Amino acid sequence: MTQDTATESLRQDNVREAVRERYASIALRDSDASGCGCTPTCCSSASEDATTQLDETAYAEQLGYSANDTTAVPAGSNLGLGCGNPIAIASIRAGETVVDLGSGAGFDCFLAANQLAGTGRVIGVDMTPAMISKARRNAARSGHANVEFRLGEIEALPIADGTADLIISNCVINLSPDKPRVFREAFRALKPGGRLSISDVVARAPIPASMREDFEQVTRCIAGAETIDDIRTWLAEAGFVDVRIAPREDSRKVIDTWMDGMRLGDIIVSALIEARKP
After folding, report:
1. pLDDT tens digits for 151-201?
2. Strand partners, 100
3. What whole-number distance in Å separates Cα of residue 110 and Cα of residue 105?
4. Nearest Cα to Cα of residue 114 among 98, 103, 125, 126
5. What SS3 state is found at 217?
6. d(CA 103, CA 77)
């Protein structure tokens, strides 16, 4: 291993550990309550007054979820961590196997299971043990027998080749320090003809190096955003076809609330990302 390779490997490990620590703290906060108590938790600073923030239900509705969606999932599964609604573009079909990358407390997994209506199965993957435990408790309380949660990193999915008909993810891939590998893993785990349906933040322009080196901004779904051109290139290199990336300009209203004193909508925007495995 060269020095450069070793340095990059250490950097990636440090990013993952910072992300894991942040989201473990969110999972453990008020672990038996209906949510974490303040939104948007992925990006708001600890100094912000929680009374000025939206609750998880209102936040989810601003992202494109319906009122029925937010009431049809187990209490405690919606932590207000997304930046869009990947379920809206997923076109889930009866009997399919759905995999959620970075499943958190299980919000999108349970919505997918509701659409499957007792058929197929949903597999949530998350690298934070506290999130996996919380999601499993939510599944046990709600009786979702066709939903399971696996501990693992999205760069090395604990999923066999050709398992999934559909892979979803909500504002998680931006947190990965090795996004091309994430897309290669997603491609491997999909069946031929399988689909990718993602909501994530994308960069309006290349993120400055000073921001990328700030783990606080990386873990808050800001500094890990990539340009649309880079994402499109990585998806194509992984083997995906029919790639569609649609920025949601209306997301600026939400993104601008993520940090006091910053117009984050000038830097990043939420986008819906779709692709297919031939």
Report:
1. 999 999 999 999 999 999 999 999 999 999 999 999 999 999 999 999 999
2. 124, 168
3. 10
4. 98
5. helix
6. 10
